[in-house]
Amino acid sequence: MATNEDRSAFGTPRPGMDRRTLLKTLGVGAVGIAGIPLLAACTGGTAPGAGATTSSSLTFGSGSSDDVPKAAYKAVTDAFTKKTNITVKTNVVPHNDFQNKISTYLQGSPDDAFTWFAGYRMQYYAAKGLLAPIDDVWQKVGANYSDAMKKASTGADGKMYFVPNYNYPWGFFYRKSLWAEKGYEVPTTFDALKTLCAKMKAGGLIPIEFADKDGWPAMGTFDYINMRLNGYQFHMDLTAHKESWDQKKVSDVFDTWKALLPYQNPAALGMTWQDAAISLGQKKSGMYLLGSFVTQQFTDKAILDDIDFFPFPAIAMEGQDAVEAPIDGLLLSKKGGENQAARDFMQFMGTPEGQDAYAKVDPSNIATAKGADTSSFSPLNKKCAQVIADAKSISQFFDRDALPAMANNVMIPALQGFIKDGTVDVKNLESQAKALYAAQ
Amino acid sequence: MSTSTETTGTRAPRAATAGRRKAAGGGPRRVRRLSRRDKIVLAVMVGVPTLIQLLLIWIPTLLSIFLSFMRWNGLSLADIKAAGLANYAYVFNDSPAFWPAVQHNILWLLFLAVVATPLGLLLAVLLDQQIRGSKIYQSVFFIPVMLSLALIGIIWQLFYQRDHGLLNFLLGTAGTPQAVDWFGDSSVNIWAAMVAATWRHAGYVMILYLAGLKGVDPSLKEAAALDGANATQTFFRIVFPAMAPINIVIVVITIIESLRAFDVVWVINKGTNGLELISALVITYLVGEGQSIGIGSAFAVILLVISLVPITIYLSRVFGKEKKP
Lengths: 440, 325
Hints:
The complex is a heterodimer. By secondary structure, chain A is an alpha/beta fold.
């Protein structure tokens, strides 16, 4: 989840994290936390009774507060209102606040439908009974989605909870002209990748661009090596802590990664992904493993058109079947489950019509429904969409698939330590994981 | 703390006199110093701050201590489960960041005490001379204290950035492989962060000492000069000891600032990779998505216990003095 918010944060601190917040937390601590439900109740902004029983309106909570996504969701609600005559009252909350306060938001007076992500945190709140299952909606829109999408929208209890809107794949991005000039070829196996890296290094390039000052980007490398080595299911079980960290499979991931470390940018720990993207754009490095949002950084159209992408090479298991492609979409709160209008809205989001309305305004992501309009896609977008469509399984990125405390508080320092000196204490990872997951 | 002792202090004698009045039917020591109105005013003036203290400091502190022995996901109150000492075991045994954080906090304290605070004192002494534009210099040095967290982040980013930063540019290493990675190199970044912290702390100390210097009776200095003391002797033997009350405040502030050290580190990388601090760990575990309330509370309680040491010393000195006539 950090991915989304941080990718536009440019290394500046989270809004709202000032001295006052610090004092509140240090000094006020528990009362601050206890007070949040009250605040959430005040700012939730729902008109009680407006949507609960009648079927002519609904409330929609949106954490998409940046200009473009905000306008895109407005286009969706407008199209929905036009089609059905149901009015939608949208409450936009700054995305950091929205994500940080989601627990209290859901317990207070949440909107009927709201924006969220697929993955562990969706399943977690579903299991706590804070979301409404929407199997009826899926019966109508299910045909619009691939199996991988359906799998990602399912709760731990087997019921459907999530309607995907768009996603973006992670993979290696590179400049076509550079590769054509030097005669590099896209590697499909890990050995080929290593050979290519050695070749690039000899040619004076940084083979793999890398940035991890913010901590989360390295999770992409970990996820891919893990899935290629141990399979998609192991990734899901490990992030759900059904599998122990203290085992050979996990240390194998790090051992395999060690072979790539010398080829990744050695200055990674002081860089943000934006810094790294610039260096890729300047042809100082050969390729960059990141989400397709990396293209936001290339404002020069000549460079943007020169960017291509290939999926992470195969290592040991399942070839290149699994793709890391975090999905953003909608959930229905428990209260919203009683409102038929809200269910209609969820259904609308799951149709090509609804997703086109969104994508028309925000074309940087890939619509998830089959039949969505792809005519305005760039060749790169088409390729991204193709890779996702061909995927047998879709992972959500470590910080969406795992317990947030595990991702933020344990994995970030552990991966940074690994990048620094190539060592990691899997035994310690396991004991930390045990304590954190036990508290949930 | 002070307010609560005051309330019990005022209430106790009154109860005692009332008791005596009933028993002895009024003695010669029954002197009413306070009118009814005085008492109401006093009660309000003491009671309101006490209530605020209770509400904002004491209750949360006690709740934090309670929660540090619990496991809680922050959802419903029914989910609170006893954890015994598990959270503390996690902090001391499992968390790889805790001991580095303690070391960094100590390093931070030493750095502030040895570099930042003397620097602030030096600035104050220099600006206390009758130099031109003293007010302007004062403002310049004090501005960092007033700047917001976000602004500080941007300013130091401009200095320390590896390839485009001012510092590497001045060193002539910008854009080369020799460029110092001020943020990413875990053996360097703590020093970079402490320099940034000094930049703020020195201004703070300067203002306090300037006030202190103004309060020193000029006749003391004149007397010293008549006795033939030079400027250094006058300062260290006469002026500095005369500022004893300010000195104590400065010592306490330095200690507290080193424990509170947080913002610069948070701006750089949220307190990881060589920049671990206890306060950053508290925030990491208590606020936002990585919330794990039991463990975060345990970190907070440890920080509280450490903070109590200087606070206790300070208060015992202050109250110890009051007792002496």
